[in-house]
Design goal:
Elements: H1 39-45, H2 51-62, H3 68-90, H4 93-96, H5 100-103, H6 105-108, H7 114-144, H8 148-165, H9 167-195, H10 211-227, H11 246-272, H12 282-287, H13 292-323, H14 333-351, H15 356-384, H16 407-423, H17 432-436, H18 444-466
Length: 468
């Protein structure tokens, strides 16, 4: 049956912290709106204060072959682009009161939105879950000496339990751990930077990939990491009151990602210039240069940071899955999906404890393949609807099963297929252009973003004009 109005989330929730959030992807009613934009800073900073962020900087100088200062430039630029996009998307949450993947229906249509929602459910609820669980597991293993499988069980149970409770508990958890993670990582950063050698020559890098290629690889990976949060944006701003300043929402949400990612990725890049790693365990190798007490505190912070990141991945992954139209008991539908993702993510993470660094590198590059086209389409759609400041024109279509906008799916498929077919530079598949010009690295996300945006604009504008 078609739905022409936005369903309001039922059940009492308010500002309760230790309570299971009711409902799923319905619009948040006015009576439940609460919170301040400032809280978005630590909500988005805490999940990035973890080893996965650091390791991306390590890849830039150790694997992609950049000097420290070349890596810094790519890191700052990649994070700036993804953070600006995150701020724009986050600012829509208070106005519409719905999750980001529900808002995505405006650009893709109700059924066409199954494409990005399906991708997000897999990458967030399973892919990112596994990546961050593994990094937290390595840290806990290094700290305690306990078997890796046991460390993984502890990590998974903690993050699933927090995500199960829902929105308010998630925000509170990120606020509680923020000062702890900040203090430990800032001190660790000072130690690493003081021992680093920024003028050290670039590493060997990937064979046949030149400096420009290494730069684009780093840029794509950094952008993919930061923009990996973009499809979650309004999930964590939809409880704010509609009259909340859009500028403040966008600023604090974007700054949380930019500051945390930029600082830790630069620290990761600097750590490689200290000398060869003394351990195959990447987390152990990172803390080897620190005093023992600080090293242990950093390992604990890395474990907590991994949990902090996966709390959001499970929560938003469940939101995306529900956006696909899955029918579950109304009161606990989101919580039940969170538990399911926890089980599946645990099994995937368990299989990824071996050769984690290589798998992480591939995942970071590939995740940008689909997010970049999706982001290009959504940003163009927002610009085309810029006069709809109160969301009154978008609201009627978000839950309408009859609503179609095939410009979105078509543009995304074109962006994905063409960019991957021509520019992908992975071991599993190398595109036509990348194969004949390996020195360019992997610019698939850049091409996908631009191509999808242009195709969507070209298809959508004539449709809009015909309806005037």
């Amino acid at each position: 049956m078609a739905v022409d109005v936005e369903p309001l989330r039922e059940g009492e929730y308010g500002t309760k912290v230790v309570a299971v959030e009711p409902g799923g992807i319905e619009k948040i009613p006015p009576s439940d709106r609460h919170g301040r934009p400032l809280g978005l800073f630590w909500t988005w900073a805490s999940p990035n204060l973890e080893f996965a962020t650091i390791y991306l900087g390590v890849l830039a100088t150790l694997v992609f072959g950049l000097t420290f200062w070349q890596a810094v430039l790519a890191i700052v630029l990649g994070n700036a682009l993804s953070s600006i996009a995150h701020g724009v998307l986050s600012a829509r949450g208070p106005v519409h009161g719905v999750p980001e993947m529900v808002l995505s229906r405006a650009a893709f249509g109700f059924w066409g939105n199954l494409l990005p929602a399906g991708f997000l459910a897999v990458t967030a609820g399973i892919g990112w879950f596994a990546v961050n669980s593994v990094s937290a597991t390595f840290a806990l293993n290094s700290l305690t000496g306990a078997p890796k499988w046991l460390c993984l069980v502890i990590v998974v149970l903690a993050q699933v339990a927090i995500a199960f409770f829902g929105h308010n508990f998630v925000h509170s958890f990120e606020r509680w751990v923020f000062p702890v993670l900040t203090v430990v990582f800032v001190i660790g950063a000072i130690v690493v930077l003081s021992k680093s050698h920024p003028g050290a020559p670039a590493g060997a890098g990937i064979p046949h990939v030149g400096t420009a290629g290494g730069f684009f690889l780093t840029l794509a990976a950094v952008f993919g990491y930061g923009s990996g949060w973009n499809p979650y944006a309004s999930d964590y701003t939809r409880y704010l009151a509609p009259e909340t300043s859009k500028r403040a929402v966008g600023l604090f949400a974007g700054a949380g990602i930019f500051v945390s990612c930029t600082v830790l990725q630069i620290v990761g890049a600097a750590s490689v210039t200290i000398g060869p790693p003394a351990s195959d365990n990447p987390t152990t190798a990172f803390v080897d240069t620190m005093p023992s007490l600080l090293a242990n505190l950093t390992l604990l912070a890395i474990a907590i940071g991994g949990v902090s990141a996966n709390v959001l991945n499970i929560y938003s992954g469940s939101m995306s899955f529900l956006t696909m139209g899955v029918k579950l008991p109304a009161h606990l539908r989101r919580a039940l999906v969170a538990l399911t993702f926890g089980v599946i993510g645990f099994l995937v993470a368990l299989s990824g404890l071996d050769d984690a660094g290589h798998k992480y590198e591939n995942f970071l590059l590939v995740i940008g393949y689909w997010i970049a086209p999706w982001l290009g389409i959504v940003l163009v759609d927002i610009w085309l609807r810029r006069k709809d400041t109160d969301g009154s024109l978008v609201a009627p279509v978000l839950y309408d099963r009859r609503y179609t906008n095939w410009a979105g799916p078509i543009a995304m498929v074109v962006g994905l297929v063409v960019s991957i077919r021509l520019f992908s530079n992975q071991e599993q598949y190398t595109g036509v252009v990348a194969e004949s010009n390996p020195g360019i690295g992997d610019i698939t996300p850049i091409v996908g973003f631009l191509l999808a945006a242009v195709v969507y604009f070209a298809i959508r504008v004539p449709v809009i004009r015909s309806h005037k």
